Amino acid sequence: MTAAGQWQQALLDAIRDPQWQPDPDFPAAGLAVYRNNYRVGLMEWLAQLYPICRQLLGEEFFTALAREFVRVTPSRSGNLHRYGGELAGFIAGFAPCAGLPYLPDVARLEWALHRGYYAADAAPLAAANLAAIDPASWGRLRFGFQPAACVLASNWPLAAIHAWHQPDSARQPVDMQQPQPLLLYRDSVGDMQLTVLEYAAAAFCHALYQGSTLEQATTAALALDSGFDLQATLLLLLRCGALATVEEAS
Amino acid sequence: MSFTSQTLIASALTAVVAMTVAAPAMAAEKEKCYGVAMAGKNDCAAAGHSCAGQSKVDKDPMDWKYVAKGSCSQMGGMLEPMKK
Q1: Which region, left, alpha or beta, applies to residue A77 given φ > 0 means left and ψ of -120 to 50 means alpha?
Q2: Is there a contact between A190 and B27 if contact means CB atoms under 8 Å apart?
Q3: What is the CA radius of gyration of chain A?
Q4: What are the tens digits of pLDDT across the range A143-187?
Q5: Which residue is closest to A44 within chain B, CA to CA?
Q6: Does residue A161 belong to the interface with chain B, where contact is any CB pair within 8 Å?
Q7: Domain ranges of chain A
Q8: Residue A160: CA atoms inside 13 Å, Cβ hemisphere, count?
Q9: What is the ipTM of this complex?
Q10: Where in chain A does DSSP place strands (E)?
Q11: What is the pTM assigned to this prediction?
Q12: CA nearest to A184, candidates A108, A126, A130
């Protein structure tokens, strides 16, 4: 690294770590401006990225949470869009949030909506792709999901919490005892959509999403509900374009 | 493979394949430009203070207790008293 490169790296390190003064030539007042801008920029980004968490906690609490998160979580990309995915895990271990045990899942949902919105396009899998496969190997099929799609297993009413915080919401009280595992996907207009999955269908979709074969996922769903409707669940996945690839497990 | 899931897979996939479900059009075909920001999430505005020439000073709170004053209580989602 050149001398200029080393100097720039030392400055960046000093901006990220307020306790560190690597070079007596960095004036404290100037460094403070950089440190403030860095911190405020990331905190404002978190506030935009997690609007529901912010509303749930209120402005002051969220700002304090964001400040703590930024303090221990350095930005690792020049692209602000990649910052903040660890907030759910941070909240789960953050004692002041212990009274809101569903908050980590809400953060997980908001991050998935954000990443899905900006994810790359992939051609959706069609039923015709399945027709070309020998029925004898159907049980060994593995599916790849769209980069924009994901399955969120959760014990909390994520769809209801999401709906409650939309601008046109009627704001009916949310039943916190009602788990709502979700399938998230991007529709043909490019907006993210949430579909609540029934219990066994959620186990099926989650298993497929994690890379299980069709047979393993079906067995897992049937263990929860012998009346599991595989056909309807596959149709749902195909109709919303959540799947992208299929391959036979070796 | 268990007999039940084998049977279910055979019948369900036969039906799905026969229905020739059309996959939805891709977003790209609807002229969504790559890199267009979600409403209200303009990158420049997100990093606001640095490119808009405004500044906002973030001070560490002196003696502040974490009390949720947001929508969690209205929504029915305050499950236990917040720790101070």
Answers
A1: beta
A2: yes
A3: 22
A4: 999 999 999 999 999 999 999 999 999 998 899 999 999 999 999
A5: B46
A6: yes
A7: 1-118, 119-250
A8: 20
A9: 0.78
A10: 141-145, 150-152, 182-186, 192-196, 243-248
A11: 0.87
A12: A108
